[in-house]
């Protein structure tokens, strides 16, 4: 390693008049070297750098334009989605309101039909009670009539003798003949 640094150090001792060599004075050579390198880079690299920057600028503009288009489409889709959401919410509210009104209507119909059924049952009960009362009254009448008839027959049989009995039968037969003659 020492021989490599010695060779660079020995280059500084070469005479500079009329010959080509390296200037090892860093402060004097850096601005000159930098200006030469920059000049060469600017001269030859200007077109390449300009093309690179133009390509990069075009890609950035294309990306911005694509992003703007995507943003526009996204906003459009968002508005469509919001419109659909509003529509669905309105339909849901309408279904909810219709559902509640349908429930209320069914509730009223059920209550009304229950009241009608109760009225019919009450009417049926009252008719059944009246029918049973009428039947009981008819049975009592029939029994009273039978008892009265038996009492009357008993009274007649005890009061009537054969002769009175024959006269009553003859009178009734005479009345029946006179009624028959009137109808003929």
TrEMBL record:
<dbReference type="GO" id="GO:0045259">
    <property type="term" value="C:proton-transporting ATP synthase complex"/>
</dbReference>
<keyword id="KW-0138">CF(0)</keyword>
<keyword id="KW-0812">Transmembrane</keyword>
<dbReference type="GO" id="GO:0009535">
    <property type="term" value="C:chloroplast thylakoid membrane"/>
</dbReference>
<keyword id="KW-0066">ATP synthesis</keyword>
<dbReference type="GO" id="GO:0046933">
    <property type="term" value="F:proton-transporting ATP synthase activity, rotational mechanism"/>
</dbReference>
<comment type="function">
    <text>F(1)F(0) ATP synthase produces ATP from ADP in the presence of a proton or sodium gradient. F-type ATPases consist of two structural domains, F(1) containing the extramembraneous catalytic core and F(0) containing the membrane proton channel, linked together by a central stalk and a peripheral stalk. During catalysis, ATP synthesis in the catalytic domain of F(1) is coupled via a rotary mechanism of the central stalk subunits to proton translocation.</text>
</comment>
<keyword id="KW-0793">Thylakoid</keyword>
<keyword id="KW-0472">Membrane</keyword>
<comment type="function">
    <text>Component of the F(0) channel, it forms part of the peripheral stalk, linking F(1) to F(0).</text>
</comment>
<keyword id="KW-0150">Chloroplast</keyword>
<keyword id="KW-0406">Ion transport</keyword>
<comment type="subunit">
    <text>F-type ATPases have 2 components, F(1) - the catalytic core - and F(0) - the membrane proton channel. F(1) has five subunits: alpha(3), beta(3), gamma(1), delta(1), epsilon(1). F(0) has four main subunits: a(1), b(1), b'(1) and c(10-14). The alpha and beta chains form an alternating ring which encloses part of the gamma chain. F(1) is attached to F(0) by a central stalk formed by the gamma and epsilon chains, while a peripheral stalk is formed by the delta, b and b' chains.</text>
</comment>
<keyword id="KW-0934">Plastid</keyword>
<keyword id="KW-0813">Transport</keyword>
<keyword id="KW-0375">Hydrogen ion transport</keyword>
<feature type="transmembrane region" description="Helical">
    <location>
        <begin position="32"/>
        <end position="49"/>
    </location>
</feature>
<protein>
    <recommendedName>
        <fullName>ATP synthase subunit b, chloroplastic</fullName>
    </recommendedName>
</protein>
<dbReference type="Pfam" id="PF00430">
    <property type="entry name" value="ATP-synt_B"/>
</dbReference>
<dbReference type="InterPro" id="IPR002146">
    <property type="entry name" value="ATP_synth_b/b'su_bac/chlpt"/>
</dbReference>
<keyword id="KW-0175">Coiled coil</keyword>
<feature type="coiled-coil region">
    <location>
        <begin position="71"/>
        <end position="98"/>
    </location>
</feature>
<keyword id="KW-1133">Transmembrane helix</keyword>
<comment type="similarity">
    <text>Belongs to the ATPase B chain family.</text>
</comment>
């Amino acid at each position: 390693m020492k021989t490599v640094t010695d060779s660079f150090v020995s280059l500084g001792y070469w005479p500079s008049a009329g010959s080509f060599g390296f200037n090892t004075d860093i402060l004097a050579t850096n601005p000159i070297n930098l200006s030469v390198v920059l000049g060469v880079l600017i001269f030859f690299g200007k077109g390449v750098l300009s093309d690179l920057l133009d390509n990069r600028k075009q890609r950035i503009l294309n990306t911005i334009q694509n992003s703007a288009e995507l943003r526009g489409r996204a906003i459009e889709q968002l508005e469509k989605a919001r419109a659909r959401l509003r529509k669905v919410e309105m339909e849901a509210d309408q279904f909810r309101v219709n559902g509640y009104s349908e429930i209320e209507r069914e509730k009223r119909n059920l209550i009304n039909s229950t009241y009608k059924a109760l009225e019919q049952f009450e009417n049926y009960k009252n008719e059944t009670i009246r029918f049973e009362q009428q039947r009981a009254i008819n049975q009592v009448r029939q029994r009273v009539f039978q008892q009265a008839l038996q009492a009357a027959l008993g009274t007649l049989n005890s009061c009537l003798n054969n002769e009175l009995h024959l006269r009553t039968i003859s009178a009734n037969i005479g009345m029946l003949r006179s009624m028959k003659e009137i109808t003929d």
